[in-house]
Design brief:
Shape: globular
Number of domains: 1
Structural class: alpha+beta
Distance between the termini: 61 Å
Number of helices: 2
Helix content: 25-40%
Order of helices and strands: HEEEEEH
Length: about 110
């Protein structure tokens, strides 16, 4: 094995460890959301609100994440569970979560 192959093996191992860590964090947060009613969000990382998991009646819908810095012009992206497809970009985490619920036919915030 040459140095390039060794470096690629290390990078692949790091990606596997990162993905496993993300999955463990996600499962912990989803346990917290399991008994909730209606639309609920929870931080994936307790020290940061930049990524939040979204559930409706305890069902995992996906996540919302802040794109760029926080502040008056911040933008949030909604992403459906198990998809890289973005639902859209919104001005707040709450607006992104509502759009995600609507995209999953949950009608949260639609007045229905």
């Amino acid at each position: 094995m040459d140095d390039d192959d060794a470096l690629e093996a290390i990078r692949q191992a790091e990606r596997i460890v990162w993905a496993a860590g993300w999955h463990l964090q996600e499962q912990d947060v989803l346990r917290q959301l399991a008994g909730t009613r209606g639309l609920a969000c929870a931080r994936l990382e307790p020290r940061s609100d930049a990524i939040q998991l979204v559930a409706y009646d305890g069902e995992h819908l996906g996540h919302v994440r802040r794109e760029g810095p926080s502040g008056p012009d911040e933008r949030w992206v909604a992403v459906m569970k198990q998809q890289a497809q973005q639902v859209g970009t919104y001005g707040s985490a709450a607006a992104a979560a509502i759009a995600l619920a609507r995209a999953c036919d949950k009608n949260e915030g639609s007045g229905q």
